[in-house]
Structure to design on (136 residues):
């Protein structure tokens, strides 16, 4: 026999040995959980009394955070729980410091001349704007 066929046969045997999952009625499960939480019965006795597996009941008791109607009415809710306060807006970035620019090699003559002309144009525009403001 091949190893693959043996593996397949073992998987089939395991599937046949598995029991189908039992569905527990919700009301029975709820009663069993209440008995355990109210300390009316222990976990083992409640599982035997209601016909539920002990580990299954333990898992449901551990995860049962659903409040009963009496507990739900006793919970205090504040308006913030229902409609929380809005978050503050992000802070504005202050413009200060050095402006980001391109890295340049200033020893190159064409590059250096381009930078000087750009700065000259900038200074001329600033002078024109200051004269225009003074006239008004």
């Amino acid at each position: 026999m091949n190893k693959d066929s043996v593996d397949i046969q073992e998987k089939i045997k395991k599937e046949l040995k598995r029991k189908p999952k039992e569905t527990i009625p919700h009301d029975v499960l709820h009663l069993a959980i209440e008995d355990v939480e109210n300390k009316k019965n222990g976990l083992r006795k409640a599982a035997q009394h209601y016909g539920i597996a002990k580990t299954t009941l333990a898992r449901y008791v551990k995860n049962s955070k659903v409040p009963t109607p009496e507990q739900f009415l006793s919970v205090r809710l504040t308006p913030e729980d229902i409609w929380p306060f809005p978050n503050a807006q992000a802070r504005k970035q202050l413009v200060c410091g050095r402006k980001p620019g391109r890295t340049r090699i200033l020893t190159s003559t064409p590059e250096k001349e381009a930078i000087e002309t750009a700065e000259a144009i900038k200074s001329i525009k600033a002078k024109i704007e200051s004269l225009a403001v003074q006239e008004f």
Notes: The mean pLDDT is 78.
